[in-house]
Amino acid sequence: MRLDPLSLRLFVAVMEEQAIARAAAREHIATSAASRRLSELEAQLQVRLFERSNRGISPTPAAYTLLDLARNVLGEMDGIGRQMREYGMGMRGHVRVVANISAITQFLPAQLQSFMAQHPEVQVHLQEKISSEIALAVAQNTADFGILNAGHYGGDLRYIPYRTDELVLVAPSGHPLTQQAKVRMQQALTYDFVGAHMGSALNGLLTRSAAQLGMPLKLRIQVTSYDALCLMVAAGLGVGVLPRKSAALYVNSLGLQTMALDEPWAQRQLVLCMRSYEALPSAAQSLLHHLTDPNSDSRPFIP
């Protein structure tokens, strides 16, 4: 059987767009040609992929199975082309990494600096996403591996421990809570909060904690970055929750203070996730080994 990559790519587009015409436009081919390719693909596979009616198309169970297989095949083919192009350009590897903001601000700067000093021929493309999007990106092969909060995200992914992440409460100097070394959420929830963006893990933790205590979470403002959160806290708009090492970047410059959170969820586990270690390009395997080396981030990041 000789499967045409163009037909597989068109099939994936149809599944994502849920319409042949939109998929055809996305792939820059005529709608009639797209429909013919799909029929030929069904004939090759000897299985019906779509139920057709006056209202459009409806994927069959076989189509959903083929979707995962096609994405994997196309991802591997794109990887072959990408790596060969990089060799032609004089580069010996390209690693696609997605990570959450906690990993990016606390651990990755020093680790990537030392790795790239040892492997100047390897190009690392790092993108920030929230944990659920990281798992999806790895599962769909748009990233080689990811770094995210430990949890249940579905999909056939492999997880290995990365680092421990401690959350602390951040408040401006002179705030009543700064008189304590440790703070319970029951005390903190009596004050306004500066929160992270919708869908973030930090907001989820705060919301669940407030619900369990039967107290309102008074989010006065929500921001999309740690530096913006610290600036708002420094301006007196509320207190916030951040990873300890991330908060330390702003404490002195903004006159902030941090207090330990006396809550079980304040200790988090960050994990690395991948589809398969054996399927990773050699450059990605080298970076993975470096990131899991406990000595690789022992030296501070030097900008």
From TrEMBL:
Q: Domain named HTH lysR-type: which ranges?
A: 1-60
UniProt keyword Transcription, yes or no: yes
* Disulfide bond keyword on record: no
Which Pfam families does the protein's record reference? HTH_1 (PF00126), LysR_substrate (PF03466)
Instruction: Kindly state which keywords UniProt assigns to this record, in alphabetical order.
Output: DNA-binding, Transcription, Transcription regulation
Stated family: Belongs to the LysR transcriptional regulatory family.
Q: What is this protein called?
A: LysR family transcriptional regulator
Source organism: Comamonas jiangduensis
